[in-house]
Amino acid sequence: MHPITGHGGNAAIEDCAYLANRLQDLLERGQTPTYSQLQDIFYELQEERRPRTEFLTKGAHRLARLESFGTPVLKQVMLHIFPRVPCENILAGLAESMTQGKPLMYLPLPQRAKRLTPYDDEVAVTPKRRSALSSYTWVLLFLLAGSLRYLLPLDATSSQNPANLTESASWRHYEGRTYFCISAIWTVESYRSALSLGPLLTPIPWMLLSEYIGWHIAVSLYSALWVLGTRYRGFYHPWPRAVPLAAAEALLIALPVALWGSVIFKDIALGAFTLYRGAAPYILLPVLTSLLSYVFKRDGTRWVPALQWGNRDISYTSPFFSLIFIDVGISHISFVMNDLIPVLGAYTVSLPDEVVGFVSITLLIMLWLLFTAWDLHRVKILNWALGRAGLYIVLGLALVGPGATLIAAWWAREKVWEKSRQRISDARYAGAAPQLK
């Protein structure tokens, strides 16, 4: 164990705590440990503690290489990038190394024993790294779904020369609202501290990319990178689930301007990209959120890193998601009732390029929600079978459309995820000092 992280002694103490707990378990049952029982305990200790020790050892070696400028790249990272790492990332990294520890279960608790982040065995969620095979399988599925429009016939026309629904105002509005839902999720995820050091740091390049190469390609690439960026053990616990409180407040204030920005703003020129009225909200939401968040950060009570552990952001993100859900759901119902149903059966199927692109987006959203349900089930946040989740997704797509279904699922995900991170029982801490509020 390299001494640079200071976990060598911690690991030894945790081994002793594990051994002491098991021995006391036997004594509490009125048993005197036999030689074979002691052998079993030491064997279990070795098997139980090996992954933890390997995790700490690898972390120490990585930090040693970083601080010693092990490669030219690491030197640049240490000198120019690491000083700009948000403090919550440092805290989260420390939390991941601490929550896997073993407390001494039979000793009186010291002051301030009720820690901000629970031990892994105190919560319902079961943190574990997603396997490379699973991650790359989902990545491949997302890339295939994003390529769908190149596999289907385009610009097929009917012999009856049907009116093109994609030219109607209601279609444009509905399509724009669906894409707005995706941009809203991208904006929220950009404030997730676990993703703040990678290509998903800001949604703006992805929105520009969507306008240039198509939403189906950008969404498939984003989804693939999100899968790869969240495969590590600590993503669901103990890394923070909450977005910073300043950003959560800013999201709710920026939403009305962004959601109805197409009525207020004219075309926006940005470099080689021209964002037409329907696309203006995609950029407005992250830009306004970033500006407002910067203003709110100046109030220190809104920028305490510890606030990212807890559910304070949900009081702002819940109305944020609900407003989008209502607006987009109404757009879906209006389009289906007023434009789609009247022409069903009257014409043969027409597949213009925009329709195929929207079908690809719908398939990607469905696949994304299936992945989310599968991943939450994997870490025991959600106990739904994949078939049950698929049924709910199909019903949502039919009733309120892909955009509103995505928003509703993400809204529910935040709540069940946070619930799974709370201590199952506080009985052990009944006499300890209160937790930070």
Automatic annotation (TrEMBL):
Keywords: Membrane, Transmembrane, Transmembrane helix. InterPro entries: FAD/NAD-bd_sf, FAD_mOase_fung. One of its GO terms (molecular function) is monooxygenase activity. The chain crosses the membrane at residues 135-152, 212-230, 242-263, 275-296, 316-335, 355-377, 389-412. The lineage of its organism: Eukaryota, Fungi, Dikarya, Ascomycota, Pezizomycotina. The keyword Membrane applies. The keyword Metal-binding does not apply. This is Uncharacterized protein. It comes from the Eukaryota.
